[in-house]
Design goal:
alpha+beta, three-stranded antiparallel beta sheet, 6 helices, about 15% strand, disordered C terminus
Length: about 280
């Protein structure tokens, strides 16, 4: 066999080997976290994917199947009470990371707190029973988070001093009437990127910083993306610095919205009617 042909066959073999070894199939009920050059790149859902050879690697495999989870967000309330007691009137900024409505939904609330399925919610025979059950459990988890936020607000009101509460989710989920299947954090549905955003001021905070409260009120309908929220959070806490970009803060009358993106920043977000919206 001529040497040149032998070398070509070896090259073809190596190329095929590289391609085959970098094909990744993500099973159902799993997501893979991918790193590129040591930094987070993207999250792969179920299906066929191809890694960039030598540059990307699967850093973590996460199961979406039901797992034992004994923790609920209401168990944080005693810790919040403890921290508020330790503060003793000193300005304090608490970051509370909630489980919220992450899977499995029915582990996010006590059984006695279940409000759904409500009458008529599971009446549509075209929706698979599994999706109907997931919808009810998701609604229950949302309702329980509302109860937790109410408890936090009630506690802050008793402080009788300047206080604020900022709540937002890290991502959304797509549940809508008539859906035939459910995909965790469906990347092709706007609902996976649209999140609740709540900002509350105590009367004492409003009195101490009326310009901040007025700025928040003026910008309440402005588009925003949470990767730029740090500037609003700093201003809420009264922290600024030289050349602080006031146009980035939702509390400033000069706030300037930026284009928003989805799919890990690869696709411009477009607000348009989708299946997630009722007719």
């Amino acid at each position: 066999m001529p040497i040149m042909l032998f070398l070509i066959l070896i090259l073809i073999f190596v190329i095929l080997l590289v391609v085959i070894t970098n094909i990744v199939i993500v099973p159902q009920s799993m997501v893979y976290v991918v790193e590129r050059l040591g930094s987070y790149s993207e999250t792969w859902s179920a299906g066929l994917h191809v890694k960039i050879p030598f540059l990307e690697r699967v850093a973590k495999k996460v199961s979406l199947k039901e797992q034992v989870a004994d923790s609920r967000d209401d168990q944080l309330l005693p810790e919040v009470e403890k921290k508020l007691g330790e503060a003793g009137g000193i300005p304090t900024l608490l970051f509370i990371h909630l489980l919220g409505s992450h899977m499995p939904f029915r582990h996010r609330y006590p059984a006695e707190a279940a409000l759904f399925p409500a009458p008529g919610e599971t009446a549509d025979p075209h929706i698979p029973a599994t999706v109907r059950q997931l919808t009810a459990e998701y609604d229950n988890s949302i309702a329980f988070t509302d109860r937790l936020l109410d408890a936090l607000l009630s506690r802050l009101k008793t402080l009788k001093r300047p206080a604020f509460l900022l709540y937002f989710s890290d991502h959304g989920e797509a549940f809508y009437p008539g859906m035939s299947d459910w995909v965790a954090r469906d990347p092709d549905i706007n609902a996976s990127y649209e999140i609740p955003f709540l900002l509350w001021f105590s009367p004492e905070y409003r009195k101490a910083r009326p310009e901040v409260a007025a700025g928040a009120q003026a910008n309440r309908h402005q588009p925003h993306q949470t990767d730029r929220l740090i500037y609003t959070l700093l201003e809420l806490a009264g922290i600024t610095y030289r050349d602080f970009p006031q146009e980035e803060s939702l509390l400033n009358p000069g706030y300037r919205p930026h284009p928003r993106f989805i799919h890990e920043g690869k696709i411009p977000y477009c607000k348009k009617p989708q299946a997630t919206e009722l007719p």
